[in-house]
Every structure is written in structure tokens, then in C-alpha cells.
Specification:
mainly alpha; about 95% helix
Length: about 80
């Protein structure tokens, strides 16, 4: 009876050790994936910042168009002597 009990303890400890090893492996894998995702997110952020800096001038196009419209209306008014 004592031998059977000590055998059960060994099986229990072995099963517990396997569970701990599997959990540790999963935690290591998840941590590695999280680091990889963080690096990719940083790369994406840098790419988006670069794209934004390259397209900043496009936002000035609207203001340029408004200024040109105002200039042409005023020139038309001067040429024709009308109200616009």
C-alpha cells in the first residue's frame, strides 16, 4: 500500500512538472510574439509618420485654391467694373 501511494505521488509530481513546463513555454512564446508585434507596430508608425510628412503639402492645396479663386474674382471685378 505504501509503495502504491508513493508511486501516485511520483505521477502527480511528474504531471505537475509537465503542466509547469507547458505553461512556461506558452508564456515565453507569447512574450516573443508580443515583442515582435511591438517592433512591427513601431515600423508601421514610422512609415505612417513618413507618409504624413510627404503629404503635408496637399493640405495647402485647398488654401491655394481659395486664394486663386479670390484673386481671379477680384481681377474679373477690376476688368469688368462689376460686382463679381
Amino acid at each position: 500500500m505504501v509503495a502504491a501511494m508513493s508511486g501516485n505521488w511520483v505521477v502527480g509530481w511528474a504531471a505537475g512538472a509537465v503542466v509547469v513546463i507547458v505553461a512556461a513555454a506558452l508564456i515565453i512564446a507569447i512574450t516573443g510574439l508580443a515583442r515582435r508585434i511591438t517592433r512591427q507596430a513601431d515600423d508601421i508608425t514610422q512609415a505612417l509618420d513618413g507618409a504624413r510628412s510627404h503629404t503635408d503639402a496637399l493640405f495647402a492645396v485647398r488654401m491655394t485654391n481659395l486664394a486663386l479663386d479670390r484673386i481671379t474674382r477680384n481681377l474679373r471685378r477690376v476688368r469688368t467694373g462689376g460686382a463679381g
